[in-house]
Structures are given as C-alpha cells and as structure tokens.
Amino acid sequence: SVGGRVVRLLSCSPSGRAAIGFLTRMLGSDWQFRRAALQFTLVAVIGAPAIVLSGRTASPFEPDRLSLIGLLPEFLPFFTMMVCSLLAYSDHYRGAWIFATATDAGRRGYVRGIYWSICLLFLAVPLAAATIFYAPYWGPRDALLFGAYGLAVASLLLGAQLLLIDGLPFGHPPRPARTYGLMAVIMFGPVVLGIAWIAQGWLIYRSRWGVVAATAVFTCVAVVVVRYGLRELAMKIGRDLARMGGASQGMFESADG
Length: 257
What we know:
The protein is mainly α. The chain contains 9 helices and no strands. It is globular and about 60 Å long. The model is unreliable at 247-257 (pLDDT under 50).
C-alpha cells in the first residue's frame, strides 16, 4: 500500500511497513479498542463538522478573528491520545510472544513504524486534506502555512503521547482503568481545547511571521520530544519482549520435557 511504502521510507526499515499493516488491522478488528473508541464518536461527530465548516469563511490568520479551524492542530491529537492510551491492550495479547523472535534492528524499526503509522493516519493525512481543501478559500500561502504549523504542533503532542503507550501494541490484557480514565479526557478536554484556542489565536495567529516562527520552534521541540518518546517506548517494548521470550522458551522446554 502507499501508506506502507511511506512508513517504510520514514522509519528506514521494512519493520516500519509491518507496523502500519499490523496496527491498521488490529485497530479495526480488536473489540476492546473499538469499544473504547466509541466514546470519542460523539466528540468527532460534533466537533469535526463545526471545525471544518468554520474554515470556509476566512483564514485563521485574519486579524481580530478567532476561527474554530485554528483549533485543528490540537483537536486531532485529542484522538491520538486515545490511541496511545489503549494501544497496548487487547483480548488477543497471548499471541504477542511471536514478536520476541524479531531481531534488535527489526524491533527498532518497528518502534519507529508505530510512531509514523499513528502520525500518518491520524495527523498527516487529515492536515494534508485540510491544506488542499482550504487552499481555494484562503489562498495557497495561508493553507500551506497552516498545514505546516498544524503538523509541527500535532507531531509535538504525539511525541509526548508516546509515553502513554504501556509497551508492545496489543501485547497486554485489557485494563479497564485506562478506558475509564478516558472519560475524564472527554469531560475536561473541551475546556483545555478552549483555552488553547483562545491563547493560540491571540498569541500566534495574529501574525503570519509569528506562525512561521512558532512552526520552527515547535518543529525543533518535536524532534527532541519524539526521540525521547521513542526511546522510552523501545525500552518498554524491550522489557515486554524479554518477558515474553522467557515465557515462550519455558513453554517449549516444558513441551520437550
């Protein structure tokens, strides 16, 4: 697939392509994840149309104007937070020991593939679509600037959210406390988004040069945060695989005995 080739290129490893293939299939088929994701359906149904339609009237960079479309860079990570919080849990966790047979290089590529898969599916594609959609309304300059700024902000937030992944994707038994914790995000998330919307609109969007500067700053910070998040995730997955490798070895030894 095109997405698989893109993730393989970005992750610099064939294991990255395996990551997006595995994640897309499990996200769509795992019952525990789908049940928890239903909680965010109402947020998407109400929030997405309001944000999208608000951008047809004017660019978010127009002076003395607060448009809901300016909230898109923070709205999309609202859903990646849900993905990262639930990614490690599944009813099919017993089959995860097979990942213990992978090489160290393959594991590192797989970890990078996890990040790029989530980024591509939930952030890059929607922001690219927004850039294309709003170009006739705002002009190419503002549309491209908004897309670049949005990707920088969303990538930074996703990098921090990597810390929410508790280990190997779909490699742990379900944890109901995580699902219940997401209810607080749904309840108080709009308040946080509202504060971000007002602060961003008055502190950054008032000047296009300010947006350019903020994009550069957020991009640099995102690189640092993502690298740290990937390192921590790799350590968690390494511990999981070491535990699973020992368990699978014991299983085969007992079978031989």
